[in-house]
Design goal:
Helix 1 (about 1-25) runs parallel beside helix 3 (about 60-75). The protein has one domain (about 1-135). The chain is built from five helices and no strands. With about 140 residues, it is mainly alpha-helical. It is a multi-pass membrane protein. One of its GO terms (cellular component) is plasma membrane. One of its GO terms (biological process) is cellular detoxification of fluoride.
Length: about 140
């Protein structure tokens, strides 16, 4: 069952990445790869939130979590595209954009993961408190 859910999640995540990339390119005509940056930052936040709130609260079956985390988020985010886009910026002599992209991706991804973790922990604590008060 895990394989099926991860596969279906992979299709969903890759389609989301494709459509967000197309949407971003429709209004962003600059050399900086903003679409991939946005995708990876969103994915970092969602995975940070998912691994704290949903898992701690045991709200979903582990197979569904695998489908969401590994399938959807795993195929939505992309390290290989980030790497190729960075090399392309360097090959075109856009060293400042390449450096900015690497720094924003690395530290932005870490920040978004941390924020997702914090939001997930906060939501889990609030849900636990509500359950304690209703018991």
């Amino acid at each position: 069952m895990n394989y099926l859910l991860v596969g279906v999640g992979g299709v969903i995540g890759s389609l989301l990445r494709y459509y967000l990339g197309v949407f971003t390119h429709s209004w962003w005509a600059y050399d900086f790869p903003l679409g991939t940056l946005i995708i990876n930052l969103i994915g970092s936040f969602v995975l940070g939130w998912l691994t704290t709130h949903i898992i701690k609260m045991k709200l979903l079956h582990p197979s569904i979590l695998a489908g969401i985390g590994t399938g959807i988020i795993g195929s939505f985010t992309t390290f290989s595209t980030f790497s190729v886009e960075t090399v392309t910026l360097i090959q075109h002599g856009l060293w400042l954009f390449a450096l900015l992209y690497v720094v924003l991706s690395l530290f932005g991804g870490l920040l978004m993961s941390w924020l997702g973790y914090k939001v997930g922990n906060h939501a889990a604590r609030n849900l636990q408190r509500k359950e304690e008060h209703t018991s």
